[in-house]
Every structure is written in structure tokens, then in C-alpha cells.
Design a protein that fits this description.
By secondary structure, this protein is of the alpha+beta class. It folds into two domains: 13-59, no CATH class; 61-162, BH3703-like domains (Murine Class I Major Histocompatibility Complex, H2-DB, Chain A, domain 1). Helix content is 44%, strand content 21%. α5 runs antiparallel to α6 (122-142). The N and C termini lie far apart (61 Å).
């Protein structure tokens, strides 16, 4: 005997159009339209929804940071970028956005030389640099490092690896 699988029918006509208008991005980001829906939820449901949104937003930080890091060092033959901690950040210990070490394909390691105003390509760098600093702070906030740890971002594989405290990588 072959079991049959039934799937719910898709909404048709006016209902489908109404649902399409209701559940699209402008609805979800328009406070005036979303608040009435949120008011129907209890506190526990609101915290659950907020948790899902925060988890989804945080899951995107590594990928966005990786893209920005690749853009900042291109076209240099850099395979990994290393960060150390900054214990003096306003919110506690963060990954330091000023002490960055480039691991090159030939095995050499050197500090990142930040371009300065007036250098060729500075304007493009400045935009990416601001985005990089924001993303690194967001990454630090979601999982604060221990002072003295090192973060290695592999630009080839996309892996983020945190070493132990004061470990030489």
C-alpha cells in the first residue's frame, strides 16, 4: 500500500494577494503596521520572537565581517587575519580594531598598515573601514573575548578561530 502525502492547498485569489501584501518586508519593518500584531502576543511570545530575530541577525555578522575583511586586504596575498583583545573598550573586552596582523601566503606576519587621508584609494578604504569596525564590535558584543585571546579569521576557508589566552598562534 502506498501512503499518499497531501499538502495543504495554497491560498487562492484574493486571500493569496492579501497574504502577500501582509507578510512582506515593509510590513515587518513598519512599526505602525506591526505593533497591532505584536499587541496580540503575550510577553513570552514577544521574547521568543525577539530571540529569533537576534539569533538571525547575529548569524549574519561573521559572513559580513569576512566579506569586508577580504575587501580591505585585496589584492594582497593575505590568507589569515589575526586580532588581539582590547581590554579598554567602553563595554568591556573587545577584539581590537587597531591591532591587526596579516598572515601572508608566504608565511610572513606583519601589522596591518592603515591608509591615511590623502593616500590613493583612501575614500573607498574609509567606507569599508567604518563598516569593518562596526561589524567587529558587533562580533565582540555577541560573544565577548577573554582578555589576551587571539582571533584568527581564515580568508580562504572563512573559519573564525579563537585561541586561548596569551597563546601564540
Amino acid at each position: 500500500m502506498n501512503p499518499t502525502v497531501t499538502t495543504p492547498a495554497r491560498p487562492r485569489g484574493r486571500l493569496r494577494n492579501a497574504l502577500a501584501r501582509l507578510w512582506h518586508r515593509p510590513f515587518l519593518t513598519d512599526k505602525d503596521r506591526l505593533v497591532p500584531v505584536l499587541q496580540t502576543m503575550n510577553r513570552e511570545e514577544l521574547y521568543t520572537l525577539a530571540g529569533w530575530c537576534e539569533t538571525e541577525a547575529n548569524s549574519r555578522i561573521e559572513g559580513e565581517l569576512l566579506d569586508v575583511l577580504r575587501a580591505l586586504v585585496a589584492p594582497e596575498p593575505v590568507t589569515r587575519i589575526e586580532f588581539v583583545t582590547d581590554p579598554n573598550h567602553d563595554d568591556g573586552v573587545y577584539w581590537d580594531d587597531e591591532s591587526i596582523y596579516l598572515h601572508r601566503a608566504d608565511g610572513t606576519v606583519e601589522p596591518f598598515d592603515f591608509p591615511e587621508a590623502g593616500d590613493a584609494g583612501y575614500e573607498e578604504f574609509a567606507t569599508a573601514d567604518e563598516r569593518f569596525r562596526d561589524l567587529l564590535a558587533d562580533y565582540s558584543r555577541q560573544d565577548p573575548p577573554v582578555h589576551g585571546a587571539h582571533l584568527i579569521v581564515d580568508l580562504v576557508s572563512g573559519d573564525f578561530t579563537e585561541s586561548g589566552r596569551y597563546c601564540l598562534v
